[in-house]
User: Which sequence fits this backbone?
């Protein structure tokens, strides 16, 4: 295994940071996008993000403290609402791969905007610390992001990828594409808060 100080300069880490920063920047600009462009681009960047995250080398925490976080409830909610307004009535999807599913008779309704905001939260927190340029905290932020990928946002990513794929390749999207975003204010699932990994 590499020493901690070297892991953050590993080529796979550098590539993950690049894609992660691009993903965050893209979502931050989502508000002004057409739905078709947003869906197309998200379908291209999510698999790349998954691939790069899966290639992060083994790494271990140096400090006892959790890395600093950047994404507040307000930042999270604004981003989620912006994405929901772009996707409009197409934000909702039925999810069958959830921990609660064995106890439910019907699929559970989820929102693409909430999934993307959840992924954004972990990745933006990582990027925020990484850009401060302090080796030890960069290392620990990487460890946290890698762990969260395996237990939380990696699954969110593949769930929402399925929903977005259906949205792009489902034929009924085209007749509704023109000029419909403004009539809808996004998904019904406003009763959520951003996640806490302990209750996953």
Assistant:
């Amino acid at each position: 295994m590499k020493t901690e100080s070297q892991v953050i300069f590993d080529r796979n880490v550098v590539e993950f940071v690049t894609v992660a920063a691009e993903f965050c920047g893209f979502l931050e600009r989502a508000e002004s996008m057409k739905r078709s462009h947003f869906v197309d681009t998200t379908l291209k960047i999510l698999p790349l993000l998954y691939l790069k995250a899966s290639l992060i080398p083994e790494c271990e925490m140096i400090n006892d403290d959790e890395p600093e976080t950047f994404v507040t409830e307000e930042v999270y909610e604004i981003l989620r609402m912006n994405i929901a307004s772009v996707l409009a009535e197409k934000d909702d999807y039925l999810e069958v791969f959830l921990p609660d599913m064995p106890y439910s008779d019907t699929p559970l309704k989820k929102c693409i905007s909430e999934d993307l905001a959840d992924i954004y939260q972990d990745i933006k927190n990582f990027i925020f610390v990484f850009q401060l340029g302090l080796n030890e905290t960069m290392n620990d932020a990487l460890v946290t992001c890698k762990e969260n990928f395996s237990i939380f946002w990696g699954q969110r990513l593949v769930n929402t990828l399925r929903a977005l794929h259906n949205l792009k390749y489902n034929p009924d999207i085209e007749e509704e594409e023109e000029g419909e975003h403004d009539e809808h204010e996004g998904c019904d699932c406003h009763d959520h808060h951003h996640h806490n990994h302990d209750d996953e």
